[in-house]
Inverse folding.
């Protein structure tokens, strides 16, 4: 899942079917040498409002 971070894709959206939520990851960063992750994660219910970046 973190290949988007290495590719420097600024926003990654994942619809979690089992939980019926939208997970929005942003601010990709290299946490430690060779270890990538996102500094920001927001979870919204499917009936919520999501602002586009």
């Amino acid at each position: 899942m973190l290949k988007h971070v290495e590719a420097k894709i600024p926003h990654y959206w994942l619809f979690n079917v089992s939980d019926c939520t939208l997970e929005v990851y942003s601010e990709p960063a290299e946490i430690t040498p060779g270890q990538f992750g996102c500094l920001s994660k927001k979870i919204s219910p499917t009936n919520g409002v999501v602002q586009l970046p």
About this structure: The first helix runs from residue 3 to 6. DSSP finds one helix and three strands in the chain.
